[in-house]
Design a protein that fits this description.
253 residues, mainly beta, Methylamine Dehydrogenase, Chain H, four-stranded antiparallel sheet, 20 strands
Length: 253
Amino acid sequence: MPGLTSASQLAVGYDHACARLSGQTVRCWGYNESGGLGDGTTTRRATATEVTGLADVAEISTGGFHTCARLTNGSAWCWGYNLKGQLGDGTTTNRSSPVKVAGLPPIEEIACGEAHTCARLTDATVRCWGENANGQLGDGTFTNSSSPVVVTGLSGVTMLSGGARYTCAVAAGLGRCWGSNSSGVLGDGESGVDRRAPVTVKGVSDALEIRAGVFHTLARTTTGAYGWGVNSSGELGRGTETAGEPEPALIVW
């Protein structure tokens, strides 16, 4: 078995992890009761095991208990827990081996949330699938979907990030987020008001990167880095410990 010294990307789920190797295959380890390791079994693994039948992998992303991969041909494949349809194969059946996401045009990026998944297409739009109780699919509804749906009013997307129950993107230099807005993680100045379509992050322009977490969000711009959301442990880097902060502020270096 090749050592993971040949890994070119790592991804961490709630209690499993995966590595994309330099040979464009994937190995996973940890919790596997829902098939999240993709080795065709539901047996826990304390060492890395190869994902079945998956080659030419360009990118991987892990959710709570599922994993997805983007292949070099632009297709998306997912495996693991599927109760909310987060594998995108049109079912809610758990899969212990990779299945192809149904009806998805070629993609350039894939991002998993807790129980949903999103992909940036080659035309710079976004499609999402899976759990949608908080609007994290961004299609204007709160209805789960086991097949990809189009995120409403979003174009010019250059990067994606899947939060626990929300999603964020960089589009035309702006931060755009949707889904659960617990503690103001969407950055639109509101707190606790879920959004089923993208809203613009306040005060963040010329964004280069955005990273959605569980209860806080960070963005890197041409002029500095910003944070918003929960700050009870100082996770926003503002030099203070406060309650939720629904508007971005500069991180103090």
